[in-house]
Amino acid sequence: MLKPRSTATRELVNLDGIWRFAVARDSAPEPWAGPLDTRLEAPVPASYNDLFTDSAIRDHVGWVWYQRSVRVPRGWAGERVVLRVDAATHEGKVYVDDVLVAQHVGGYTPFEADITEHVRPGGEFRLTIGVNNELTSVTMPPGTITVSADGRRKQTYLHDFYNYAGLARSVWLYSKPAVHVDDVTVVTGLDGATGTVDYSVETNAPATVRVRALDARGTEVAAAEGPNGTLRIDDVTLWRPGSAYLYELVVDVLDGDGEVVDTFAEPFGVRTVEVRGTQFLINGEPFYFTGFGRHEDTPVRGKGHDDAYLVHDFQLMEWIGANSFRTSHYPYAEEVMEFADRHGIVVIDETAAVGLNLAVEAGLLGTPPRATFSDDTFNDETRAAHAQAIRELIARDKNHPSVVMWCIANEPSSNEEGAREYFEPLVELTRKLDPTRPVTYAAVMFATHENDLIADLFDVLCINRYYGWYIATGDLATAEMYLEGDLRGWAEKFGKPIMVSEYGADTLPGLHSIWDAPWTEEYQLAYLEANHRAFDRIDAFIGEHVWNFADFQTTNGIHRVGGNKKGIFTRERHPKAAAHALRQRWLPLGGRKPSGTVE
């Protein structure tokens, strides 16, 4: 799905701001007719949970309603008028006046509706958006809803971050011509010093298509006609980690007289990605990942996108020497992906498939284990929802040069019976939708090289490991030994590139000790050093992503005090002592493997 852009033939109106807000009186999804009867207002974009002092709103399970008046620009006569919601977590319904015009399940990808027939240029309409935060066995991520003895609906889920909900990203109104570009796909390659750009353009009706590639100065460097083809850019400037260079593919749609009726510009970078043996190659050169698993999580806003935090977070990543991050555990706002494109940050792009592991439930609650994959738990319907999440992720992010790998799940129960039957069709789907990028998943602690049932299906092994925290707590000598043995087992059995996609220790800023005391800043630093020593002894090792970039909010639970504290930065983005140590390790690496390892 193309992100709306303002062009010579398209106009864009941002609908962010303060909206009327109401919590549904019951679990019924339909709103009451007319204006919302409410005194509450809420900002868009933002999660609603932390905005209000009423705990009933924070803990609400079900629908909430946003509403505002929108005026269509009078100059849009003869144009198609489209309403776009960048994300509604986790289900959205859109009404123009009292007419349902769109609905969508999936909390982190956009959806839109052509509302031309329901509005008039120069006129005003009442826009109402319902958002439902419910998680079930057939949502991504999954969850369970129960009803307490006093009649309250309660939501439980298996992921360790707070279930923030609402309109956390922007809402747009935009125009496009009657005949227009519907989609653009760009795949780049290298032929010596020449960049190749395979393009495909979809239009809503038969039309003549012309494409031009412009360099960063706006100079045309290649051109072609037709909806499909290949452009060649001589002496191409590559998109590289830490050194981004973007071209622009300008697509013109022409009428029978040769006049331009629509134009759309899609940025792209020329680069290649390849897995060769135990190496991960970008532009044919080995690349070593340094960085983080992150969360869209800030005080008050929750998962609401914020450009100030976006800029500051990327500044902190540059300062510390991070060259990459994983969008744990859902697709991030498109503004984040575009920023990564412009600044040369490498991204592992992940679906919202987190929590497909009922062994975690048994461990946390002390209940008898249930089969993760079965007709009564995660089944064919679950997999269909998972497949749709993959389709929407790739459709949205396929043209971003920063995205070098798809991660289709975090910590699934890949060692359980039924895992292969569940995941094999999803891997096949991912490769069919995009054969140009490697595919991975993030393996849970329970899954080892001896019992994992799906690792051979993937190109890169991303492994989450917490030796020294959840296992061998406070005993870093034992933890280092366990970790090295674990990683060597994966390397010897599968012969694939390996990275640790999560490792970390909860740390309270300001807590200190002269001994190896968990939760202290000294322990976090020593924990990371022990992990790094083990990493550096593994030849097939290609990267390290610390969990987490910053402290983040989690659900209620006695194992969390004020959220997850594994951040290298606090939730307010203050550095812990480990931040300076990571900077000393990462800055000299520059995307290369640590010295002393074997290529």
TrEMBL record:
Q: Name the family the entry cites.
A: Belongs to the glycosyl hydrolase 2 family.
* Entry's EC annotation: 3.2.1.31
Q: Which UniProt keywords apply?
A: Glycosidase, Hydrolase
Task: Tell me the name of the encoding gene.
Answer: uidA
Lineage of the species this protein comes from: Bacteria, Bacillati, Actinomycetota, Actinomycetes, Kitasatosporales
Q: Describe the location of the Glycosyl hydrolases family 2 sugar binding domain by residue ranges.
A: 14-177
Q: InterPro entries from the entry?
A: Beta-gal/glucu_dom_sf, Galactose-bd-like_sf, GH, Glyco_hydro_2, Glyco_hydro_2_cat, Glyco_hydro_2_CS, Glyco_hydro_2_N, Ig-like_fold
Q: Where is the Glycoside hydrolase family 2 immunoglobulin-like beta-sandwich domain?
A: 179-271
Q: Which organism is it from?
A: Streptomyces vulcanius
Q: Which Pfam families match?
A: Glyco_hydro_2 (PF00703), Glyco_hydro_2_C (PF02836), Glyco_hydro_2_N (PF02837)
Q: Single GO molecular-function term? A: beta-glucuronidase activity
Domain Glycoside hydrolase family 2 catalytic, residue spans? 273-588
Q: What is this protein called?
A: Beta-glucuronidase
